[in-house]
Write a structure and sequence with these properties.
about 40% helix, alpha+beta, 2 helices
């Protein structure tokens, strides 16, 4: 699986739960921690939590390990 395949799968998982203002930012020249940052908006805390859950579920279905999820309990922002 390529990096572009993973990026596409993340965006699809967000679109499945009706995220909006989805932005994919290439940060490879800024950091060695990650290659892309994906930012999306939701209409409610419940939707934000559903977005995070769906992305994690999609990654697990592709055998991609999710290192951690921050902010899920509150649901106002999640990384």
């Amino acid at each position: 699986m390529t990096l572009n395949d993973i990026k596409k799968a993340v965006v699809e998982a967000l679109e499945d739960i009706k995220a909006f203002d989805i932005e994919v930012i290439d940060v490879r020249k800024m950091t060695t921690v990650t290659s892309f940052m994906v930012i999306a908006s939701a209409n409610s805390i419940r939707q934000t939590k559903a977005l995070a859950h769906n992305v994690c579920k999609k990654m697990m279905s592709l055998n991609i390990h999710v290192n951690g999820v921050e902010g899920e309990k509150e649901g106002e922002w999640i990384s």
